[in-house]
Amino acid sequence: MTPLAEEIARIYGTPAVVIDLDKVEANIARTQAICDAAGIANRPHIKTHKSPELARWQRDAGARGITCQKLGEAEVMADGGLDDILISYNILGEEKLGRLASLMRRVSMTVAADNPVTVAGLPKAAAMAERPLDVVVECDTGRKRAGVETPGEAVELARQIAGSPGLRFAGFLMYPPEDGWPATQTFLDIATAGLTDAGLEARIVSTGGTPNLVNVGKLKGATEHRAGTSIFNDRMQMAAGVASLEDCALLVYSTVVSRAAPERGILDAGSKTLTSDIGGLDGHGFILEHPEARIARFAEEHGFLDLAKCNDRPKVGDVVRIVPNHVCVVVNMVDRLVTVRGDRLVGDIPVAARGRLA
Amino acid sequence: MTPLAEEIARIYGTPAVVIDLDKVEANIARTQAICDAAGIANRPHIKTHKSPELARWQRDAGARGITCQKLGEAEVMADGGLDDILISYNILGEEKLGRLASLMRRVSMTVAADNPVTVAGLPKAAAMAERPLDVVVECDTGRKRAGVETPGEAVELARQIAGSPGLRFAGFLMYPPEDGWPATQTFLDIATAGLTDAGLEARIVSTGGTPNLVNVGKLKGATEHRAGTSIFNDRMQMAAGVASLEDCALLVYSTVVSRAAPERGILDAGSKTLTSDIGGLDGHGFILEHPEARIARFAEEHGFLDLAKCNDRPKVGDVVRIVPNHVCVVVNMVDRLVTVRGDRLVGDIPVAARGRLA
């Protein structure tokens, strides 16, 4: 148990979600450098940290603007002094259109749409805000999530946007599968030709994803990239080969609370801390102090340790440090992040947009 | 889309976590009646609702006290006027022992321990509080989570507690597997005989679990039962055969935000709302309006709908109601629960102990 772990446990208790600000700064700089080298604007996705303070760090390091997934996140970011916000999500319903209008009066907003119903609603926000709204067409190039499936549909939706009162067609939002960039290029080229025929132009062509940082620069016509996880990294990014253990800026500090048998134990971090997001990996996290230990499964407040392969096994009361499988969902479980620099405790920052799911 | 769904979406936006207070009251009464019929005290686990208001309803319906899993939950409950609190968890470390002492000065506390290290720390809390602390020995009778594995260890730990300054041995905490009640009886009988030899007595013998409500009364010597999920119920309880769809008091209201292809769609509730807790079931929730739809997987803010088996398919903008797989983790994602009675909107209540994981 390190002196820092003892200090954090004494002051904050465990489980605690801890970020190393030195690593955070290095990760922010690395993402920015990748975008700079490719001549692409950096528009980080704040869903990972949900902190206006860290978003300002990203902006001050050179980010063009930020990406939010939900309106509630954008509201918190605007409150925190951020501007030029892209919501990469369909905004639907009276309640949300009213809130979008309020945001538009305060900051520069762009929203995504992948269907005519969403586009048909957005003019209400523009009318309430009494200013035009930039809209990008979300395109699916293989992930089968949201997004129109064909360039023809993309152009059709661009026309609808351009023809709608108060709306401006701003471009395309894409989230290519890591191995899907050639197909994305084909999609974009056909869609761009269709836009030309329609007398339209894509000012923004936005790509996304931390594993896709290795692909930034490969899509001709791309103007910006949205990476979220790269500010902290996690076990999934390590598995994807885009981060090393050294790059992981977020650790969950957890106490071993039970060791009822030689080959097993219980952590005080369960699914209400680390979440059940497994991310296709074996086990639910990597324990720095016990690399051979496996977090086999969870109850809500229990992490089940399988210690069969451990020679050096943790004792009851030990505080261990865990690299989670998926940081974005872990951050969303807590109201604050404890901050350190190296082996020094700094303090904590609020996760101001935590739980802003609407 | 029901008028109530439209009203909730208009006022609160989606996703929204909604509880029907009529059903909540019926569920509280049913659990109490099961315990009353067995002559067993009811000590509901508040991890499911994390609301002092609902805990007071449980108390006023006849509950003896409440169960919390973490100290932070107990603090919120004490703030909300609850007393007689059992923390069914090993409390370890200076920070937590200090907080436990503060709680002991305000309310009647019992804590669990399954190892000598935990027991060795607890006298500090008793000393700081200047009052004795009741401690139950957590026993494992097959779940392989926390808890001593043998009656001999249970008695040994009871002796350690009884011999520790400021601690009182209070009894046994058990969480039998649903099919493990005969083995639990054997464990308890041997442990009770061992206690007699040691001149000790178990004032509390506590069992737990909503699926175990069908077993309440089967353990000779049991004094109380801890059920959590039964206040709301969910798809896991339906699968376990202990709740019907009618008994499910909590629904997640979610908007269909994308329908990019005929056989699929996207909900605005993803893993940051419904969580990745699958609970051994197929799919991540049951949609009342579209029983044949399958919530196949999640991104953080996207629920992936597989509509292949649906004849009547939802449209973009439709608000649907979802019975989640596991309510306890869903409640923990939100700061408030929207409340209804039947088809009438009532208001909302805070999830005051949300995120109190330490």
Write a concise keyword list for the protein shown above.
homodimer; 31% helix; alpha/beta; TIM Barrel; 2 domains; elongated
Short description:
Helices cover 31% and strands 25% of the residues of chain A. Chain A is of the alpha/beta class and 358 residues long. In chain A, α4 (71-79) runs parallel beside α5, α5 packs across α6 and α7 crosses α8 (181-197).
Give an account of the 3D structure:
The structure is a homodimer of 358-residue chains. Chain A is an alpha/beta fold and 358 residues long. Chain A folds into two domains: 3-19 and 236-350, Beta Barrel (Lyase, Ornithine Decarboxylase, Chain A, domain 1); 40-233, Alanine racemase (TIM Barrel, Alpha-Beta Barrel), CATH 3.20.20. The first copy, chain A, is built from ten helices and 17 strands. In chain A, strands 1, 10, 11, 12, 13, 14, 15, 16 and 17 form a nine-stranded mixed sheet that branches. In chain A, strands 2-9-8-7-6-5-4-3 form an eight-stranded parallel sheet. In chain A, α7 links the parallel β6 (133-139) and β7. In chain A, α4 (71-79) runs parallel beside α5 and α5 (94-106) crosses α6. The first copy, chain A, starts with a helix and ends in an 8-residue tail after the last strand. The model of chain A has no long low-confidence stretch (mean pLDDT 98). The interface between A and B is large, with 67 and 67 residues.
| Highest CATH level, the class of the largest domain in chain A | Alpha Beta
Share in helix of chain A: 25-40%
The CATH superfamily of the largest domain in chain A appears as Alanine racemase
How many distinct helices of chain A?
A: 10
- Identify the CATH architecture of the largest domain in chain A: Alpha-Beta Barrel
Based on DSSP secondary structure assignment, what is the total number of beta strands of chain A?
A: 17
Query: How many strands, which pairing sense, and closed or not: the largest β-sheet of chain A?
Result: 9 strands, mixed
- Structural class call of chain A reads alpha/beta
Structural domain tally of chain A: 2
Tell me what portion of residues of chain A adopts beta-strand conformation: 25-35%
Low-confidence stretches of chain A: none
Q: What do we call the CATH topology of the largest domain in chain A? A: TIM Barrel
Q: Can you write the helix and strand succession of chain A as a string?
A: HEHEHEHEHEHEHEHEEHEEEEEEHEE
First CA to last CA of chain A: what distance? 40 Å
Biggest interface: chains and residue counts?
A: A-B, 67 and 67 residues
Oligomeric state as shown: homodimer
- Morphology of chain A: elongated
Mean pLDDT of chain A: 98
Rg for CA atoms of chain A: 22 Å
